[in-house]
Write a structure and sequence with these properties.
The protein has one domain. 12% of the residues lie in helices and 27% in strands. It has three helices and ten strands, in the order ββββαββααββββ. The two termini are 23 Å apart. This is DUF1989 domain-containing protein.
């Protein structure tokens, strides 16, 4: 559902630009709202969420999909944890839908989807692993990298139940906005993938803005 935000960028308490291939890892406090802004269009922001006070609790694709009865996320979607708790709610969305099934690119999946020589190309899992290694204060390790949300990514489901990776449906200036229902660690990999049509084969920066309650 397309829903415009009433929040103004000049009132944000934090504003970060995340280059393609880089990561964003910050705590968003309960009651705060944050926006992922697709600056140039058709970019994919692969995102994980963790309970900042108990990181073993994290985003669950299974619970989120089951409770809302839809594999796509948009305005009104409640992001659930693996303990059935609401972590965040999407409160504004100018893109329309976001993927929960496509997963994150990895060096291994690059060889399966594209070609053997693509294995050495940078991937989202590399960014996440770098993030948890450089930020030991969050208490996360490789084993905590689980299934993610692909904001702005277009992964239609075929009639036979398969997945296809198609051109993105986002555009410059599109955004998704979420309000935190608990203190959450937000871990984003701004996808560096040069092989995927979802970002028009041209990875670009995204911006993350945070507002207080």
């Amino acid at each position: 559902m397309i829903t415009e935000s009433q929040l103004q960028p000049e009132n944000a308490v934090r504003r970060d630009t995340v280059p393609a291939g880089d990561y964003y890892m910050q705590i968003v406090k309960k009651g705060q709202t944050f926006r992922i802004l697709d600056l140039e269009g058709n970019q994919a922001a692969d995102t994980l969420f963790y309970n900042a006070n108990h990181p073993a609790e994290r985003y669950s694709a299974i619970d989120t999909i089951r409770e809302q009865g839809n594999v796509y996320l948009t305005t009104g979607t409640k992001i659930l944890s693996d303990q059935g708790n609401v972590m965040l709610e999407i409160v504004a969305d100018t893109c329309g839908r976001h993927d929960t099934l496509g997963g994150a690119c990895a060096t291994e999946s690059n060889t399966v989807r594209y070609a053997l020589e693509k294995k050495t190309m940078h991937a989202c899992r590399d960014s996440w692993l770098l993030a948890v290694t450089e930020h030991e204060e969050f208490g996360l390790t490789k084993r905590d990298i689980t299934h993610n949300i692909n904001f702005f990514m277009n992964v239609p489901i075929t009639e036979s139940g398969g997945l296809t990776f198609e051109d993105g449906i986002s555009a410059p200036g599109k955004y998704v906005e979420l309000k935190a229902a608990m203190d959450v660690i937000v871990l984003i990999s701004n996808c560096p993938q040069l092989n995927n049509p979802c970002n028009a084969y041209n990875p670009t920066p995204v911006e993350v803005l945070v507002w207080d309650a």
